[in-house]
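Data availability (excerpt). All sequences and predicted token strings are deposited with the supplementary files. A representative entry, Myelin and lymphocyte protein, is shown inline so that the format can be inspected without opening the archive.
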Amino acid sequence: MAPAAASGGSSLPSGFSVFTTFPDLLFIFEFIFGGLVWILIASSLVPIPLVQGWVMFVSVFCFMATTALLVLYIIGAHGGENSWVTLDAAYHCIAALFYLSASVLEALATIGMQEGYTYKQYHENISAVVFSYVATLLYVVHAVFSLIRWKSS
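Structure token line:
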């Protein structure tokens, strides 16, 4: 544990070093794929409105929270406090669980699309499912490495 602490691996980056450290580099990809999920769900038709509502909530919530955390890390609002490492790990674990549930529900709703939907609408939903699973993977990887950082802090 001492080498990680000595090299700064157990603290959060600030400034533009956020874009050069792993797992914080994943913020960019979470932002991109989360935005794509948000756009695709907003423009697609889902046979079960409750599912679309949950997927929209998850994508908008995670998009906004990821953006807020990214901006706060860039401006250095954490000040090197260990509580921010805990917040980072907790947020990414919750976001990973939320996105996993949203991805599964969106996939289930897309599979259930049969009659009354065009080929284009079906493909929009398939794209939303794929990007949702990519976002889930990104959040899971970020959560795992955030938990490792939290444990070493």
